[in-house]
Every structure is written in C-alpha cells, then in structure tokens.
Amino acid sequence: MSSKNAEVSLETLVSLAKRRGFVFPASEIYGGISGFYDYGPYGVQMARNLKDAWWDAFVRSVPNIYGLDSAIIQNPKLWEASGHVSGFNDPMVECSECHSRHRVDHLVGKEMDKLVDYTPLLSDVKCTVCGKTGHYSEVKTFNMMFKTNVGASEDSDSKAYLRPETAGGIFANFDQILETTRAKLPFGVAQIGKAFRNEISPREFLFRVREFEQMEIEYFVNPEHADSELENWKQIAWDWLKEIGLDESKMEWHEHDDAEKAHYAVASWDINYDYPFGSKELWGIANRTDYDLKAHSKESGKDLTYFDTVKNEHITPYVIEPSLGVDRLFLAALHSAYTEEEVNRESRVVLKLAKGISPVDVAILPLSKKPELQKIAREIYSKLVGGTGLTVEYDETQSIGKRYRRQDEIGTPMCITVDFETLEDQAVTIRDRDTMEQKRVKIEELVKHIG
Ligand code: GAP
C-alpha cells in the first residue's frame, strides 16, 4: 500500500468537501455570495466535534476557565472603546479599469505595515481580475465591521455592529463573571461564537471568509506573569493541535513584528499552518495587556479592576488571548487528514481524521437489503446510538465496496458489516479505516471493541 498527502491542492479539498456534503458555497442556487459558506451534514458534525474537543480541553476540564455566550450585537460604544471603530481598517484600492477592489497588502505581496505608503509599489502591479498594470485609485482605508440598525429607524442613533471578534463580550462581562464565580487570578473566560468581518478580498475557501467562528479565551493574569503565561499558552495550543490530529510538520511559529500587531497587542505569536496556498495564520496568541479592561472602564465608567489580596490593592489584570478560528482549523484538519492510497493497484481517497473528529464514528452496513439482515443491522444501530455517545450511520445502498470507499472519504474510522454468516454465528465484521483489516466480533461484545 502506498500513501501520499504532501501535494494535496485546495481544489481537491474544495471538491471533496462539496461532493461529500462537508461544505457548500452559501446560497449557491442564486450564484453564491463571496466569503460565505454553509456546512453540510458531515461538515456541521465535524465542526461540532472540533468545537466540543476544544470546549472539553479548555473549559469543561479546567477549573479556572469559565464559559460565556455573549450577544453578537452589543452596544456600539463597546467597539468604540475597544478601538475597532477607529482602528480596524485595511488599506485598499480600486482598479480604475475593471473597478474590482483589492487589499493593498495582497496586491504587493507583503504583510501590511500601516506606516508605509504603498502607492509607488503599485505602479508595477497587475490587477488580478483584468490584468491591467498600475491603474489604481489612491489608497483608502476601509472599516471591516458589518453595520446594521437596531429598531425601526435607520439613523445614526440606531447604528450597531456585528461583532468582529468574540472577545469584546468577554471584556464587557468581566466584573459580572468575577462577581458570580469569585475567580482568583489567573483565570480565563472562554467563548465559541460567530464573528463577522467585511473582508475586501475573501479567498482561499474557508481561510478568509466574512462570517466565521472563533474559539477564544481571555486569560486574565497578574501583569508580572504575562510573559510566562504567554509562553505557557503557546505550548498548550501547539500540543492541542497535535492531539486533535494536525500534522505537526505543517505547523510553525510566526512572531508578529510591530507593523503586524493588532492595535491592542504588545506581543503576538501565530501558529501558522502550511495550507496548499502557503504557511498562514491558524491560531493567534497575543498579550493584549490591560488595554481592553482600561478602555472599557474609561468608556463605561465601571470599575473593571481586581482586588489583589496579596498586594492589598486594586490592579487591572493583563490578558493573554489564544484565539482560534473554527473554519481555519476545519480546513487544516481536512488537509492534514487527506490521503490518497494505492491498494492492490486501485486508488482510494481516505480522510485519516482523528477519532472523535470524524463526522461519523461507526457505519453499519448490512451486506444486502434482505429483511433478516436489515433487522439485525438496525438493532445494532439502535444499540450503538443509544448506549455509546458515538455518531453512527446506517447505510444499505450500493455495493459494499462503494460504501467502504464512501466511508473512507468522510473519514469513518470503523465500518461494521452484517452478512449472511451473522445469522448463523451472531457475529459481525469490523473493518478498520486505516489498515483496512477486518476482524470478526460477536455482536454482544461489539461495544467493548469499538468504545
Ligand atoms: N480576538 C483576537 C482576534 O480576533 P485575529 O487574529 O484577528 O484576532 C483570530 O483572529 C483568529 O480568527 C485567527 O487566528 C483566525 O483563525 C480567525 N480568523 C480571523 N479572521 C478570519 C477570517 N476572515 N476568516 C476565517 N477565520 C478568521
């Protein structure tokens, strides 16, 4: 058996994701809408598994990290205080030939530096849409927050924003969480939820979209411990990605220089993943200092300090923020798992997703649609669905070979086949996705074998 993953292209992943019901372009029947995707039946389950794994690792099993689910639309003053109204901008230009709009940093192929004037560089750059060179409008900045109105009127008093990050809701609830949990430093608040950014040029499938999901922790620490806590979180994040099956050889650290850092950060590190289109940010880990708590305290008039019983004084904690995008993680997990193999001169595509991450844990496949086989297969299905917490699929259509290939392509680790011998020996065949080995197991011992 020969196996390869190294050269998998983005087109291959997009095609598999669509063909097998993981991800569809949003509102495709109307021509789609750039920067938005829908997760299909297998995609939504896999994304849920990734989020559950994150929540289990960082909230449910950690005594000093508390969960939160804050509203997507908050009082707009929150985004003024956080600096997003004034500072969340990308420089962009319009091609004067075809009127397409572009992010300047993408056109010139450099990380954005807010202090640099890119105009001279643009004179040699081709428009990626019409191919004309150097016909650009002047560079303008563009705020990436989606705006909406709350209530019946559409005037400036009713203006609100769809959140550009989940973190804002965490800072705004700092004092209530502190009061209700009686937490002591260091402690974290974690949230999984949608974020929205009106990206100028959404691209690379799920990598840069306009509606996405974040898994964020704001970890409040004593300012003196911020540097060591940052190092600690870098290690935790790296280890967790390995645990859920990402290929470590495709991961690397990237430290932000001053030009790249967000307006609130003094130190920022990314775990980059080597996607088919290059090594790019998957998980950002930043030291946001006391910027947010102080800014919200000033704007709202609410005291957002913490009473340090050792020092016997009020301090404003620093924040270490590990912020991970669900969609980028989903894409990296698909990419790491995608494998093409040659088996007995036939090729197969298999997603070697980690156990617990694949959308289906076990597939039950009766060899034929004969009622006596269906009856046993359905009994096994009910038993596993009810008693194990596993996601189980029942499939009786097409040849058994085609059904195995289909399960391989969606990454199902185990298939259980009910055949005519089952009627005699009360046993079934378990097929392993990766080795394709088959073993015979008594039905009464199934749970023990697959649990
Ligand atoms: N609260 C900090 C924050 O939002 P960020 O680096 O802008 O920092 C954090 O975003 C993470 O959110 C990124 O590491 C990435 O995984 C994800 N992300 C950001 N913008 C995205 C986009 N347009 N599409 C998909 N994921 C995105």
Give the key terms.
single chain, 451 residues, alpha+beta, 7-stranded mixed sheet, 5-stranded mixed sheet, binds glycyl-adenosine-5'-phosphate
Task: Report a brief summary of the structure.
The chain is 31% helix and 29% strand.
* Main beta-sheet annotation: 7 strands, mixed
Shape: globular
Strand order of the largest sheet: 4-10-11-17-14-13-12
Low-confidence stretches: none
Tell me which ligands are bound.
Answer: glycyl-adenosine-5'-phosphate
CA distance, first residue to last residue: 28 Å
Tell me the structural class.
Answer: alpha+beta
Radius of gyration: 25 Å
Work out the strand percent.
25-35%
Q: Give the integer mean of the pLDDT values.
A: 93
Helix tally equals 15
Total number of strands: 24
Q: Assign a percent range to the helix content.
A: 25-40%
